[in-house]
Amino acid sequence: MRDPAATAALLDWYDAHARRMPWRVGPDARRQGVRPDPYRVWLSEVMLQQTTVAAVTAYFERFTALWPTVADLAAAPDEAVMGEWAGLGYYARARNLLKCARAVVADHGGRFPDTREALLTLPGIGPYTASAIAAIAFNRSATVVDGNVERVMARRYAVLTPLPEAKPELTALAEALTPEARPGDYAQAVMDLGATICTPRSPACGICPWQEGCAGRLQGIAADLPRKTPKKAKPIRLGTAWLARREDGAWLLETRPPSGLLGGMLGWPGTEWREEPEAGTPPVAADWREVPGEVRHTFTHFHLRLKLYRADVAMTAAPERGTFLPRERFRPSDLPTVMRKAFDLASDLAVEN
DNA sequence: AACCCGGGGTA
DNA sequence: TACCCAGGGTT
């Protein structure tokens, strides 16, 4: 049900308190009719999938400096993009980012389509991102539903159904409430509200522009919403990795398979990661030394404990797995975090030798 | 519909 | 520790 008074209160609050972000157009420019660049909106929204604003900002600045337009990104080598994405997580996003940029250039003349429906056909653009780009970049009245919006709706309407079962209900409530005017600002306003006032714990209901219409607050249950079905405990998986350095300083690395965990990223040769330990074979014959300690890292659905071995090998070494990456082409920042942790731990050992 | 997929900040 | 996050793809 539309609520013009609530919409006005929210937009007033947004105009006064909108968070500054590199991909946003400031209020002054917006009043002069400046629209955000669809490329920058798209890039920021993909980076923001399951990732916080604080984590995204530096990556966004780096990407737009390296590749100012979608055509620049489409022309970039895969390894360059995967390397720049390293550390941000959910690496399927980076693969789909490139696919999408190349599709925009090849199929849409280098311009993003301006409807939610057309945006939905592009790789890596789902219901949330399609609505966000349509509303923010193209001023279309699309309903944006992310974790913030789900929480705000669950509280505003005191929805007791637990997530994820409640998703359709919360989406319908958000759609019914979406106004026709200023769709992009409205979408970002609800999300800002969820991020800064209607927070998961200890919501600041006393300063909320929607406090009067909020059933959750009236019933005193806002902080307990949305309800969630319990999650499964994460199992512990074990693995071994081998870090070999050649005499010329090159490191033995692999490009991981294009799909699955850390797909398409650089990594150290090693065993599979399983709950039961696995012996495994080193990738090259050498005098392997055990690295004291272990790497601990938590993924979406398991905890990993990684045992490391390190060796210095001759120029004549012939590895059965992996490729020696020359020192000048190896940047530790190109590694996903678990692999960078392994490098850091093994490097400490090298100093002692 | 269920499952897979990172990483960091926060309480 | 557990939870949270401007979700999407695959099967």
TrEMBL record:
<dbReference type="GO" id="GO:0051539">
    <property type="term" value="F:4 iron, 4 sulfur cluster binding"/>
</dbReference>
<keyword id="KW-0479">Metal-binding</keyword>
<dbReference type="GO" id="GO:0034039">
    <property type="term" value="F:8-oxo-7,8-dihydroguanine DNA N-glycosylase activity"/>
</dbReference>
<keyword id="KW-0408">Iron</keyword>
<dbReference type="InterPro" id="IPR005760">
    <property type="entry name" value="A/G_AdeGlyc_MutY"/>
</dbReference>
<dbReference type="InterPro" id="IPR029119">
    <property type="entry name" value="MutY_C"/>
</dbReference>
<keyword id="KW-0378">Hydrolase</keyword>
<dbReference type="Pfam" id="PF14815">
    <property type="entry name" value="NUDIX_4"/>
</dbReference>
<keyword id="KW-0004">4Fe-4S</keyword>
<keyword id="KW-0227">DNA damage</keyword>
<comment type="similarity">
    <text>Belongs to the Nth/MutY family.</text>
</comment>
<comment type="function">
    <text>Adenine glycosylase active on G-A mispairs. MutY also corrects error-prone DNA synthesis past GO lesions which are due to the oxidatively damaged form of guanine: 7,8-dihydro-8-oxoguanine (8-oxo-dGTP).</text>
</comment>
<keyword id="KW-0326">Glycosidase</keyword>
<dbReference type="GO" id="GO:0000701">
    <property type="term" value="F:purine-specific mismatch base pair DNA N-glycosylase activity"/>
</dbReference>
<keyword id="KW-0234">DNA repair</keyword>
<dbReference type="Pfam" id="PF00633">
    <property type="entry name" value="HHH"/>
</dbReference>
<dbReference type="InterPro" id="IPR015797">
    <property type="entry name" value="NUDIX_hydrolase-like_dom_sf"/>
</dbReference>
<dbReference type="Pfam" id="PF10576">
    <property type="entry name" value="EndIII_4Fe-2S"/>
</dbReference>
<dbReference type="InterPro" id="IPR000445">
    <property type="entry name" value="HhH_motif"/>
</dbReference>
<dbReference type="InterPro" id="IPR023170">
    <property type="entry name" value="HhH_base_excis_C"/>
</dbReference>
<dbReference type="GO" id="GO:0035485">
    <property type="term" value="F:adenine/guanine mispair binding"/>
</dbReference>
<dbReference type="InterPro" id="IPR004036">
    <property type="entry name" value="Endonuclease-III-like_CS2"/>
</dbReference>
<dbReference type="InterPro" id="IPR011257">
    <property type="entry name" value="DNA_glycosylase"/>
</dbReference>
<dbReference type="GO" id="GO:0006298">
    <property type="term" value="P:mismatch repair"/>
</dbReference>
<dbReference type="InterPro" id="IPR004035">
    <property type="entry name" value="Endouclease-III_FeS-bd_BS"/>
</dbReference>
<dbReference type="GO" id="GO:0032357">
    <property type="term" value="F:oxidized purine DNA binding"/>
</dbReference>
<dbReference type="GO" id="GO:0046872">
    <property type="term" value="F:metal ion binding"/>
</dbReference>
<keyword id="KW-0411">Iron-sulfur</keyword>
<dbReference type="InterPro" id="IPR044298">
    <property type="entry name" value="MIG/MutY"/>
</dbReference>
<dbReference type="Pfam" id="PF00730">
    <property type="entry name" value="HhH-GPD"/>
</dbReference>
<feature type="domain" description="HhH-GPD">
    <location>
        <begin position="47"/>
        <end position="196"/>
    </location>
</feature>
<dbReference type="InterPro" id="IPR003265">
    <property type="entry name" value="HhH-GPD_domain"/>
</dbReference>
<dbReference type="InterPro" id="IPR003651">
    <property type="entry name" value="Endonuclease3_FeS-loop_motif"/>
</dbReference>
<protein>
    <recommendedName>
        <fullName>Adenine DNA glycosylase</fullName>
        <ecNumber>3.2.2.31</ecNumber>
    </recommendedName>
</protein>
<dbReference type="GO" id="GO:0006284">
    <property type="term" value="P:base-excision repair"/>
</dbReference>
